[in-house]
Amino acid sequence: MVNPELSYDEEFCIVDKGCAHVMRQLRGADDVAKLETLLAEVAFDASEDEWIALLSGGGAEDAEEDATATATATATATGTGGARRRSPLHGATGVFDERDDLVALACTTVYDRVGDGDASTSTSTSTSTAAAREGGGGGRFAWCGNVVVRNDYRKLGVASMVLRAALEETSSKGAREVYLDASDMGVKLYQRAGFVATSRVRRYALRDDRDAASSNAAAAAAAAAAAPPASTRDEDDDVDDFDDDDFERVVAADAGIFGARRASLLRAWRSTAPGCFAWDPEVGYACAHARGSKLYVGPSGVFENVPVEAVSLFFERVIRLAVGEMRARDDLDGVVAYVPEGLEEEEEEGDDDDDDDDDDDDDSNAAAAAAAEAAAAALTRAGFVFEERTTRMRRCEGDDRAPPVALGDASRCLTIASLDLG
């Protein structure tokens, strides 16, 4: 086994690779160039500034700002003072070779779970969060992303080592449950570590139609129809009136669906594409953010009991905003959206002993399927192409088959933010 004690900052051996390897935490800006070189092997899209911000952890000032915003939103929605909550805790563990090049990586983000009394949204169409309805009780959960190993270090036990390190880190920060999105190649690795499948995620992408026209004229024409130039956008697509109050409503609504308040991340994402946040008090919210050369449509979600037709119209508007933003910027060459979907029946965990619970699950699954299909159909109409499917997986510390504590209301999610941050 490679580095069985998970020793940090001490040299260890890897078969056929020598004994001058070191595992350590990445140290902000000093390691960003090495990190980007490794992630380029898997075509991961991220900017240098974003990685520096994530690895620096945000700092006390960001945590204080997030806590103040939480209290404000909670008081607005519930008429009470809100509990102070921390910004997400980010970490990254890497293995470095004798030249101090990064050869393996695992990143983690730990979130404070939404609990009783946390804000959801102040609109009449949505009440308390699912976690609050279930008596969520707070606590923490984590997201594990970017478990990446350089090609010449694969099949040597390095991936298992950095994954173990990531799980120890999230446990030390109080996260009982860990989630991740697995490629087909990675599913078996995560199953051996105790992860089980909970859902799937479909990736849809649209390339810049200026480049795509020669190879995919039909998709380019559809994209042009879906996203007129910014100067001719409909008034309904004008988001100049999206203000800080709307942003706080988006943060609160997102907490009800995702299961944790992540104002600091949403604020950072908004700064990359400020014209691509949308709020409709009768339907839901949507965000788009730039990472590297792509614009990502997400996170986005809808309120309870919204007709599918209204969901479709709202999401079509969001797509127009996103594609219009991409076409107006020279630094972007495509738009990506991650759409969640349920597992096939034979993949679902659990049994059929409780008929009442099964009925509730069926209703939730039907709602999730309807929302996901509305989003997928709107993307397809706009010229987006389905590219791949990943598996969302969960590990519960101590018992991988334990019933999950409700994070939020996933049935109301249209698109997720990213595969590495949830």
SSE topology:
Elements: E1 11-14, E2 18-25, H1 29-39, H2 48-56, H3 59-78, E3 89-96, E4 102-112, H4 130-133, E5 140-149, H5 158-172, E6 175-182, H6 187-192, E7 196-207, H7 209-212, H8 217-226, H9 244-258, H10 263-272, E8 278-280, E9 284-291, E10 294-302, H11 308-328, E11 334-341, H12 355-381, E12 385-396, E13 413-415
Helix pairs in contact: 1-2, 3-9, 11-12
Your description of this structure?
By secondary structure, this protein is of the alpha+beta class. The chain is about 35% helix and about 25% strand. It has helices at about 30-40, 50-55, 60-80, 130-135, 160-170, 185-190, 210, 215-225, 245-260, 265-270, 310-330, 355-380, and strands at about 10-15, 20-25, 90-95, 100-110, 140-150, 175-180, 195-205, 280, 285-290, 295-300, 335-340, 385-395, 415. Strands 1, 2, 3, 4, 5, 6, 7, 8, 9, 10, 11, 12 and 13 form a 13-stranded mixed β-sheet that branches. The radius of gyration is 21 Å and the shape is globular. The model is unreliable at about 60-85, about 120-135, about 210-215, about 225-235 and about 350-355 (pLDDT under 50).
Strand content: 15-25%
* N-to-C SSE string, H for helix and E for strand: EEHHHEEHEHEHEHHHHEEEHEHEE
Shape descriptor reads globular
Number of strands: 13
**What is the SS-derived class?**
alpha+beta
Instruction: Tell me roughly what share of residues is in helical segments.
Output: 25-40%
Q: What is the overall pLDDT average?
A: 76
> In terms of per-residue confidence, which ranges show pLDDT below 50 for 5 or more consecutive residues?
58-85, 119-137, 211-216, 226-235, 349-353
Major sheet, described briefly? 13 strands, mixed
Number of helices: 12
Rg result: 21 Å
| Terminal Cα span | 31 Å
